[in-house]
Amino acid sequence: MSSIKAPRGVRDILPEESWKWAHVFDVTRQVARDFGYREVHLPIFEYTELFSRGVGETTDVVEKEMYTFTDRGGRSITLRPELSASMVRSYLEHGMSRQQQPVKLWSAGPMFRYERPQKGRYRQFWQLDFEAIGSQDPYVDVEVIDLSLEIFRRLGLKGLEVKINSVGCPVCRPLYRDVLRDFLKPNLEKLCPSCRDRYDRNPLRIIDCKNPECKAVTENAPRTIDYLCEECSEHFVGVESGLRVLGADFSVDNRLVRGLDYYTKTAYEILSGDLGAQNAVCGGGRYDNLAESIGGKHTPGVGFAAGVERIVLSMEQQGSDFGLQPKTDVYIASAGEEARERALKILHELRNLCISSDMDYQDRSLKAQFKAANNMGAEYVCVIGEDELKSGMVTLKNMNSGDQQTLTLEEGLDILKRAELSRKSR
Ligand SMILES: [Zn+2]
Ligand SMILES: [Zn+2]
């Protein structure tokens, strides 16, 4: 029988990497607190309808990339491909419009998309997701942008750059769509097959096509921001002036579009890295008509999502600091059954004092136990051999300095407690 492996396109996040992830989550949780966003945990699967209506029937995600199946009760279920729709669903379902607005929520977890696997892209991938629901104030857009920037700043990402755009609203977008179609018409033949298909259904998406020929055609395409209605235009000015107040480094990018009716006004993206090797580390924007599209009453909202794999990869490439890798600080080496029993008792006490500690479970020689302690990066080894057993003392060896002392257990614990305190204050 061949051994079973993980399905194609997914992977295990092993301890060698997961501690870096934990750092990203720690920083994110702190920033969330500082900005007043509260954490929620939402289901990994939802009714398919939530995404077909809440993400959009004509998007690649819904058309080609969803993990959809019929459950045993005959209902169509989909593994979530993103979080905004679930967040707004939860807001509506729990009547959060009765709370103080905007309701500010965040969550982190795996998303699922059936995409062609390639380096850095997986079918199960993790996102950080922040949403501010219930306000149309442009300063909320500014807050969301600043929040995402703050996470990346604290994670030490370099060359951070904000690109923003406004995609208008159902009032002004039809006008822009017509202008865009007129502009594209003479070059329709040069567009890729999917863009030719988009021309009628969703022409805005042609502007963000990555195909070089499509890019060339749309090089001088009319800009959405030149066709905004008064409300959208004022909102965009508000976002820009707010970003200026914060001194944020931003530019307007007409290629940032989302061609669906419930995406409104602000669209933004944050890039990081050296010029020429820049990566988008997050994307977000406003979705004032999303709540309505999934059957709720009109509720404005704005938010962003950031891929955890991409963040960690960017941090590694840029040599960012992930903080201290967790390790075992004290190893208890013992020889003989009676000593082992005493080791178990001391281990229990150390752990009670919140001192990370471990012992041998493999019946190894003292020499091999020292080697194990070394491999774990332990700062101290506490030895209980025959002599210690007789005298009731312990021998404590500092693995960095090589110093060794024989002490009473109380004295030993005291040294280890102080060492732990100084480690934690570092
Ligand atoms: Zn408008
Ligand atoms: Zn194209």
Record the SSE blueprint:
Layout: H1 15-35, E1 38-39, E2 45-47, H2 48-54, H3 60-65, E3 67-70, E4 76-79, H4 84-93, E5 103-112, E6 124-133, H5 138-154, E7 161-166, H6 173-184, H7 193-201, H8 204-207, H9 212-218, H10 230-245, E8 250-252, E9 264-272, E10 279-286, H11 290-293, E11 301-307, H12 308-317, E12 330-334, H13 337-352, E13 357-359, H14 366-376, E14 380-384, H15 386-391, E15 394-398, E16 404-407, H16 409-425
Parallel strand pairs: 1-5, 7-8, 12-13, 12-14
Antiparallel strand pairs: 2-4, 3-4, 5-6, 6-11, 7-9, 9-10, 10-11, 14-15, 15-16
Helix pairs in contact: 1-5, 5-10
Bound molecules: zinc ion (2 copies).
Description of the molecule:
The protein contains 16 helices and 16 strands. Strand 15 and strand 16 form a beta hairpin. The site of one zinc ion (ZN) has 8 residues, from helix 10.
Task: Summarize the structure in short.
The protein has 426 residues and is α+β, with helices and mostly antiparallel strands. Helix content is 41%, strand content 21%. Helix 1 packs antiparallel against helix 5 (138-154).
